[in-house]
Automatic annotation (TrEMBL), chain A:
<feature type="transmembrane region" description="Helical">
    <location>
        <begin position="81"/>
        <end position="100"/>
    </location>
</feature>
<keyword id="KW-0812">Transmembrane</keyword>
<feature type="transmembrane region" description="Helical">
    <location>
        <begin position="211"/>
        <end position="232"/>
    </location>
</feature>
<dbReference type="InterPro" id="IPR000522">
    <property type="entry name" value="ABC_transptr_permease_BtuC"/>
</dbReference>
<keyword id="KW-1003">Cell membrane</keyword>
<feature type="transmembrane region" description="Helical">
    <location>
        <begin position="112"/>
        <end position="131"/>
    </location>
</feature>
<feature type="transmembrane region" description="Helical">
    <location>
        <begin position="252"/>
        <end position="279"/>
    </location>
</feature>
<dbReference type="GO" id="GO:0022857">
    <property type="term" value="F:transmembrane transporter activity"/>
</dbReference>
<keyword id="KW-0813">Transport</keyword>
<dbReference type="InterPro" id="IPR037294">
    <property type="entry name" value="ABC_BtuC-like"/>
</dbReference>
<feature type="transmembrane region" description="Helical">
    <location>
        <begin position="26"/>
        <end position="47"/>
    </location>
</feature>
<dbReference type="Pfam" id="PF01032">
    <property type="entry name" value="FecCD"/>
</dbReference>
<dbReference type="GO" id="GO:0033214">
    <property type="term" value="P:siderophore-iron import into cell"/>
</dbReference>
<feature type="transmembrane region" description="Helical">
    <location>
        <begin position="137"/>
        <end position="156"/>
    </location>
</feature>
<keyword id="KW-1133">Transmembrane helix</keyword>
<comment type="similarity">
    <text>Belongs to the binding-protein-dependent transport system permease family. FecCD subfamily.</text>
</comment>
<keyword id="KW-0472">Membrane</keyword>
Amino acid sequence: MSLLRHDHVTVRLTTLPVSARVRPRLVVVCVVLAALAFLLCCLGMTIGDVPLGLSDVVPAVLGGGDSATAYIVQELRLPRALTGLLAGLAFGASGAVFQTITRNPLASPDMIGINAGAATAVVAGIAFGFGDGLGTTTLGLLGGLLTGLLVYVLAWRRGTTGYRILLVGIGVYAMCTSLTDYLLSRAQITEAQASIGWMVGNLANRGWENVAPLFAAFVVLFPLVLGLSRWMSTLQLGDEIAAGLGTPVQPVRLSLLLAGAGLVAFATASAGPISFVALTAPQIAQRLARLSAPPVTASALGGAVLVLGSDILARVITPSGLPVGIVTGALGAPVLLWLLVRANRSGSGG
Amino acid sequence: MRPDPEGVALARRPPQQAARALGLLTAVGVLVLLCLLSIWLGSKEISFGDVWRVLLHNDGSADGVIIHSVRMPRTVLAVLVGAALGLAGTVMQALTRNPLADPGLLGVSAGAAFAIVSSITVLGVSSLYGYIWFAFAGALAATAVVYFLGTRGNAGANPVKLTLAGAAVTALLGSFTSAMVLSDPVALNRYRFWSAGSLAGVDSGQLLQVLPFLLVGMVLAIAGGPALNSLALGDDVAVALGRRLGPLRLRGALAITLLTGAAVAVAGPIVFLGLIVPHAVRFALGPDHRWLLPYSAVLAPCLLLAADILGRILARPGEIRAGVIVAFVGAPMFIYLVRRRKQLES
């Protein structure tokens, strides 16, 4: 509790090299979150039609154990757990990226239309009957990336600003959602149901074909984001100061935006637009680490913890297993509400 | 130049009072014209002469029935819902000092939607008469929660906190709504048509049911103009000018609830109207709420009516829902406005 009580750190511009002061805490936060994510990953694999113990799961992942258990774990539960883990990491990291480059805690990818664009593409696919299996993934990917690019292009006017990206993103978001609503109202009821099921964000029935592209994207994009993140702390100070400090503002912002949108698009394509992770995880990580901006790695790990924990909770509460997105929404919102109630003046943006 | 709290750069001097009044009158004229167009155009072609004749005197013919029981209520509904959402958006943006505020964004529509869906799934309510009350309750509860959360703490009601609270409430209710809709195909079927935002299929009885709430909400909103002006200068200045912030915000919240709850219940959550119209008006006229409010109340219905008419023309003999068109007309316009705003350069 005392950890969270001091959710405000005064970072003065004159004391820019703050790294020495905050890093030990950030490392502890990352380690704890990573351990928690690992634990939840293993725990998640024990739940299912055939209950398994941790002592069954761990050897089965490594290739041991009896063949039935090995099959269940490796073909059914491991892909699900990995999809959740990777999607959570991707949502969390991209949330941190978006909140930092726009300098606004609201500017998560869900808010500026990237999830919505992916959803529109997928629903169009389902409604017009060409969106099964791999088609869904491809459509979600294309939709998300195109939307991200569209937001950036539309927000470009001799450079872009965080505020303009957020506003334009909200415009694009509204367009995508209304198009989705229209497609839903045109579709057959079964198709509408399938679409809504996907739009909520779901980890059920994920296979290796869902994990592979997401993993590949993560391995490429996450290091890119990390590499760029040293500029993020200067972007946080405003464009002019950042430029004065030698940050190539526009190239960095475009690269970050595209890398972040890519992460979200791949995660959405694999797991559906799991709500609220990209918005909440960075805020939680930022407060846990007591920083003035969301830290990328801790946000990613926080996202993974949120997604995996919510998926476990969903399966424990209901036998049929609610879609994970419903739980992240239900869980994430009170966390954010609680943070809001305790919030201090330091909130930026708006 | 003094910093503008609304973030609106006034490139030129605001027009004089007479010009503004004339502009408002013109807008009303356009609205009347659009109303006539909306009554004239529909899936059954009726000549303008016949429309005019039947409009003034309902002779009980087939055309008369169509005009009086289908197209008139629909047109009146568009005007009312448009005015309601335009006003709600204006009040909201002023109250939260947040240019991004919109009934959709601050959780009010989500509250109404959630309550309506619960009434469908849990209580089996199937008529509009049934869900209006739930919509109010939901909108009011969501407004109260967002307001409570957004004003807690030492900084008072700051825009970021309010908007975040709104986003949080929206997300929370959205996931509950999805959960209910997913588990109940009947509710899903009703929900997906309602949620696309449509003006079709509303009769005059239903209109009368929401009318009182809309009127009270509109009066509350428009009467609050001067107070909103002082609020725009900042909480401290508003207090120094003798405004009491608590009652002022409460009145605003009540107006927003009435307007949004009723509008959402009859027409579904039409996004964007409450966001874009006040922006457009503020861009042209500057941030004076005594003018912003009436202009928004007239121009928002114009946009909604135009969208509804366009939806009927584009997809004849079917139709594209007004909410979809509004978003498609509104989004580019909104993005254009965003791109033109000089203060977003830095």
